[in-house]
Amino acid sequence: MIYESELPIAFIVGLDSMQGLQTSRTLQHKKVPVIGIAKDKSYHACRTWACDLKLYVDTESEELIKLLEKIGPQLKKKAVIIPCQDLNVQVISLHRERLLKWFHIMLPEHEIIEKLLNKANFYDHVLKEKLPLSTTYILEKFSDLETIKNKLTYPCVLKPSIRTTEWMEETSLKAFKVFTEVELIDLYKKYSKFTDKMIVQQWVDGTDMNLFTCFCYYDNNSNPVITFTSKKIRQWPPLTGQRTLGVEVRNEFVEKTTIDLYNSVPFKGLGYLELKKDEITGNYYIIEANVGRPVGPSSLAERGGVEILYTFYCDCVGLKRPDNIKQQYKGTKWVHLVRDFQAFLNLKKKGQLTFIGWLKSLKGKRAYAIFSWKDPLPFLFILMKIIRLMLFSSKDEKKTHSQSPIQND
Q: Helix, strand, coil proportions of the chain in percent (round to 5)?
């Protein structure tokens, strides 16, 4: 039985996400027994063969904790919990004391989670640490808009302090680029009810290629063991969406800023920071952070020869770390084929990218977001959904599929 495995099990909480799928595949490749836990059984990642067992429960509520408490006494060895979405991180962090008897939980203290995971708290912390941030305002109520409206310049960005379940059910967008005061007011009225606070930031000039990221892993002693820097090439939706094509690059400023941020608190576990380089001034500004979990392009580091997830697992269970923990800057790329094709079509329509140019941009050593020859069902399931979208044109069908089939990533 899987619970009696000699090697400690990795529980992937949030299998119904891109990062959950990639984490499962990465650890399965290292012969780690994997149990995936998901909320949405119909999600394409749940078709993966990379789990020895799949369980389904509300992974964003105390129901998850109750399930793990039931499983814990059945385990032969203390297992590892890897939350893969922000709300998974929150619920596991909040109730960690109930689980530590049976599970390794590599997260910073809960107050650190709250400080870094909630964007309003995060930006307050960034300002206090004097890290680079564009002009930012926190909106707790509608009247706050009146207070700042004369200070704003456009375009600006409107985003939630945290993407709640309700927010993600309403839109797959992480943020909105706003061009007028009227548009800002309309968007605030529509979306503010789906989160506790809203955030307005000055737009940083530049294309998607001006976005740089750094993955990192800190051990139990708050030492930065691994950093891995990359940049976006395209994202979907453009400007405020998610990476569709990226490449590893050397960027010492981004790496240093990431370390400065996570050194500013007693941090341990997985972290991520995104910055944007201003096209006009050349200055970098922090955009967002993810804490306590893998991110969508985690497989870029693995494909680039840096075993960040397996190192995390080994440290949790007391195994020898792998040798490959230093970035070699091989120019490895990461691509989400479905989303990147959408991004290409948008650029082609604007006359900014040809089909041949798109194919050339994909050349080189690559990691894939969803596609895998060894584990094909998640990608095939997405294709089936897309084909269904194209074939059915009734009003009800359009309503049913109004959200992206991959919006949880």
A: 40, 20, 40
